Amino acid sequence: MIDVSINTQTVLAGVSIGLVVFYAIKRMRYRLPPGPWSIPLVGNYSVYTSVEVHKKAMELSKKYGPVLSLSFGPKRLIILNNIDVVLEAMVKRKADFAGRPKFTSGDLFTEGGKDIVLSTYSPTWKLHRKIAGKALRHYLQGDLLENMIQDNMNKFLNKMAQEKDPFCARDYINLMVFHQLYTICFGEKRTVDDPEVKGFLKLDEDLLNEFGTGVLEDLFPYFKDIYPTAKWTKLVDKIGEVLAILRAKFKEHLDTFEPGVNRDFIDSLLIARQEAENEGDEAALEKLDDTHLVQTISDIFFAGVDSTRMTMDWFVYFMTKHPEIQSKCQEEIDRVVGSGMPSMKNRNDFDLIEACLFETMRMGNVAGLGVPHKTICDSEVGGYDIPKGTTVMINHWALHHDPKYWKDHESFDPYRYLDENGKMKPTRPDSWLPFSAGRRVCLGETVAKPELLLMCANLLKRFEIRLPDGIEANPEYRMIGFGVELPSEYKIVVTERVKN
Ligand code: HEM
Hints:
By secondary structure, the protein is α+β, with helices and mostly antiparallel strands. It is built from 19 helices and eleven strands. The site of protoporphyrin IX containing FE has 25 residues, from helix 6, helix 15 and helix 19.
């Protein structure tokens, strides 16, 4: 009996020493980036659980340098805090940083990484990104996007015009963007008060508000099997509801699909599958099963809906805060379109509005710390080694507030993007990167920019928007996830500029 106990202790001590030596040797092999001391296994708890993680990381980077190393529970997490190291990692190092780390809640939502956003760098990810990109480009042809936006906006602007008391702009913006994505993805045009769309929006809001900061199971995955938290159980239910809706939409399309007829994004995916079938491309067909296609729809819907509605929310906030800039935008719209409606062909003449959108994207931190990357091989950045399998994040906030690139970075100043003739400067500012860069650059950038521009121009053409009398713009903001900021709840009043 005594012998067994001694043996067990010896074995345990041996294993512990072995592990310490293993990690010490591993550490010595690499020149790892520096960071603050952390509690073993728990990590830099006060940083990664802070709602202002992006600001804390930027502060720490002043001491430790732009490549900041933190411990996220038992795992290493690197945060890149300036444009040089971000471009080195994401562009210069080609695909080295293009992987995605697995995490428990992400796996649940993506049915094991079968989507685009959270799936790691692989031939399957490449194929789905290619197909989804082609499907999105379809909306940039002719006046498809423009007609859809105008049709949709008119419904909501008419309803806004009926508001006599101060109202929450966010409620309208959220629905507007949701209806837009309903048309793009599902080919559906629904009435403004449609309960299904409202229910879907509520599900999305619940997911962001309740789970945006993650669940314990992301740090300690085995909890979900032995003692799942109440939060995890609720998350499983909510995600189940979302996926059931998407699967039903997909099934409706499968049942009514006619080869060669492209009604919407889902049909574009079915056409891509049909083409692979016609070409007898077995390798592609294997990757184009129903689960993968539903996951691609989920990505386009949610990546599109959340970033766009939050950007629009910030735009309205800044316009009410800076009425003098709003008036200048309206002068620009009137000068360009006269009594007509803003359209895609005016796009290159809306310089000030575009500059306001650029500035909105710089200051409204809708991407937070972006989507986590993972190194797929041993690599380097900023003179440090980054071992294979390390999680790496981009601090978009730090890039957009770097005093080296932004004068008065706390001020909303759209004129910084314009030349002396009031035209947008030909190159984007060096440290402006809301859509990220490299292999994983946002897939929707080319749709999001014209979509947002048209929505903002249509809104300002129709209304003068202001805060209710006696109310000042609230400088506070609400954090809803890993560094993602939204303006605090605010109400606006609208006055019609031109009676239709
Ligand atoms: C203001 C609007 C938007 C912003 C600021 C934005 C920003 C971003 C960012 C920061 C990423 C992560 C890039 C990385 O991993 O480094 C991303 C990825 C992505 N975005 Fe967007 N996005 C916007 C709109 C859209 C729209 C409208 C769509 C689709 C219709 C979309 C689809 C995607 C997809 C599919 C990915 C994943 C790409 C991949 O992992 O390969 N985004 N976006």
